[in-house]
Design brief:
This protein is an alpha+beta fold and about 80 residues long. The chain has a single domain, classed as Alpha-Beta Plaits (2-Layer Sandwich), CATH 3.30.70.930. About 35% of the residues lie in helices and about 35% in strands. The chain is built from 2 helices and 4 strands; from the N terminus they run βαββαβ. A 4-stranded antiparallel sheet has the order 2-3-1-4, covered by helices on one side. β2 (about 35-40) and β3 (about 45-50) form a beta hairpin. It is globular and about 40 Å long. The two termini are about 15 Å apart. The relative contact order is 0.31.
Length: about 80
Amino acid sequence: MAQISAQVSLYPLRQPSIGPTIRETVRILREQGLNVEMGPMSTLVWGEEETVFAALRQAFHRATEGGEVVMVVTFSNACPRPEGG
């Protein structure tokens, strides 16, 4: 299976606080066994291609339970993983 990386930005819209939705998204990504590196504006994840896609789908659907959201994702099979990944 191919290893891929993804840069993910999640924007909860018209919600009293964005923190809970973002924390839950990161929790799901880690729970699925992905490598996760949080940044101030986006999160990098990497792992097996099917795991990455499935985890992001699950995270998006969970985020929509709290209201409207925008998720921006850039996938790559060529970008190097962060040190230690």
